[in-house]
Amino acid sequence: MNLVNDLINIERKATREGFGEAINQLGKNNSSVVVVTADLGESLKVDEFEKKYPERFVQVGVAEQNMMGVSAGLALSGKIPFAVSYGVFNPGRNWDQTRVSVCYTNANVKIVGGHTGITVGPDGATHQALEDIAMTRVLPNLMVVVPADFEQAKKATIAVAIHKGPVYLRLTRPKTACFTTATTPFELGKAQVLRTGKDVSIFACGSLVYEALLAAEELKGEVDVEVINVHTIKPIDEETIVRSAKKTGRVITLEDHQINGGLGGVIAEVLSEKWPTKMIRMGMKDSFGESGEPGELLAKYGLEKQGVIKTIRKIIND
Questions:
Q1: Which DSSP string do the residues of 259-281 spell out, in sequence order?
Q2: Active site includes 296?
């Protein structure tokens, strides 16, 4: 796997910025791509798309349910609409329209939920989408994708535009570590083994993949940690998950989301049927977040490097 060598002194960019660059590229290369937003174009980095392709930009105002209906209609008319808003509203507020108008009809809508997880920080609990993976992965026909960094968000955006069918793309607000490169492979539905190991497997998604890599590096020589980026939550890569669990016999999941129904839930479901394994789920434990800086909140809820190290030692020594 092609990763940067220095995990500390690396560039930081937001996944929403990667999406913004990719949507502009798509707009240039594919006249079928349309952006529909609910008054959050600048926050989700589609304001440049609006300037360049105003005839393919639809502003519905603060009306997320209407946004999804419009997007479904555009998709069923042959367009490739990207429905863009915060995750708490999209799919949080328009889940019914997502279910019936998009998933039931298998409409080719790309649902983009931004500003997800506790890393939204100062926006507080009401705007920290911690349930969106659970809400979307249960819907038939809907793919769920959680890119790990800026570069992967670009690749994921291009890939989901090519994919035929509805997709939920989960993005975050703050600048996070860019630890993959332009040449790092990316394939929808295929988890990435970023670091091989024999003692414990960490399955992570989103920006917390980086925290898992930092923890694994710090424990080098003490514990041999395998780190896997599960960027596609649905369809889940069962083969890679089971193969790693068989090798290490210990599994940790790590996500900026509720452990119930999120990545931890998916991995638990797979392993309970295919290869029951000792497991600890890291994430929000049936709790809302609160206001604070992203790093402060990750530390409070034990989701940064030190929390991961503590959990690795726990599962090794128990």
A1: SSSSHHHHHHHHHHHH---EEEE
A2: no
